[in-house]
Every structure is written in C-alpha cells, then in structure tokens.
C-alpha cells in the first residue's frame, strides 16, 4: 500500500522526521521498562538489577543502563569504596514516567492470557509465512 492511500503524510511516516518514535522505542524496550520499574523504589545496584530481571544478560543490562543514562532517564552514582559501589537511580523525567509504566505493567499482567489465546487462534487460522510479510 502506498503512503498516499493511508491518509498519513510523508513527514509523519518518515521515522527521521518523528523524534517521538526514537524516545518511545527506547523507553518501551523490553529491558528498559523492567529496569525503570525495578529502580522505582530508589537507587539500586547493578547486581540487584541483574538478579531481579529474569533473562537479562550482564551485557544487555550494561548496554540498556548506558542508553538510559545517555537519554537522561537513569543516573549512575559511583561510591568511592573498595570495591566500588555503583548505584542507579531515576531522574525526575523517569519518575514522571512511572505511573504510565505501572499501568502498562498491570495491563500486561491482566491481559497476558488474552494475548496468548488471541495469538494461538490467529496462528491456527493463518499460515506462518503471513507473519514474515
């Protein structure tokens, strides 16, 4: 389908013209949401995040924290101890996002079974190659 038939302007459809998309992609990422929710109660250490977020690798945790810090959503504080103690906390912008993230997490918990059932029905009715199109 061409863009002229969608009712969406070329500017709105162009990812480079929409900075909102980049921010939402970062904030709504699988690991970002979990890190931001985990850090909501106050500063948290790397190892606590690693233990508390099921399935995240050490490398992915490091990368995601670095991106969140770069985006101004997470602060990194190094305490001068031996060994060094590093804590991650939320910035005011990330705290403003917390109610939305909590609502999203609760929605996902309430509707997880529904989504799984819908996927199973869809998969039973449609050939798998349609998902790759």
Describe what you observe in this structure:
There is one protein chain. By secondary structure, the protein is mostly helical. The chain has helices at 10-13, 19-27, 30-38, 46-52, 58-70, 92-125, and strands at 44-45, 74-79, 85-90. A 3-stranded antiparallel β-sheet has the order 1-3-2.
Give a quick precis of the structure.
This protein has 6 helices and 3 strands, in the order H-H-H-E-H-H-E-E-H.
Number of helices: 6
As residue ranges, the low-confidence spans are none
- From N to C, what is the helix and strand string? HHHEHHEEH
The major pleated sheet works out as:
3 strands, antiparallel
Number of strands: 3
Give the mean pLDDT.
Answer: 86
- By secondary-structure content and strand pairing, the structural class works out as mainly alpha
Give helix % range: 55-70%
Measured between the Cα atoms of the first and last residue, the distance is 13 Å
Spatial order of the strands forming the largest sheet: 1-3-2
Backbone CA Rg: 19 Å
β-strand percent reads: 5-15%
Shape by Cα distribution: elongated
């Amino acid at each position: 389908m061409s863009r002229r038939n969608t009712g969406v302007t070329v500017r709105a459809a162009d990812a480079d013209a929409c900075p909102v998309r980049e921010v939402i992609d970062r904030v709504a990422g699988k690991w970002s949401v979990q890190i931001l929710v985990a850090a909501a109660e106050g500063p948290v250490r790397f190892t606590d995040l690693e233990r508390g977020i099921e399935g995240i690798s050490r490398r992915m945790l490091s990368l995601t924290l670095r991106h969140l810090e770069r985006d101004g959503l997470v602060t990194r504080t190094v305490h001068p101890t031996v060994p060094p103690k590093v804590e991650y906390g939320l910035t005011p912008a990330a705290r403003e996002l917390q109610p939305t993230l909590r609502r999203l997490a609760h929605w996902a918990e309430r509707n997880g079974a529904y989504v799984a059932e819908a996927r199973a029905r869809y998969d039973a009715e449609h050939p798998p190659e349609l998902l790759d199109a």
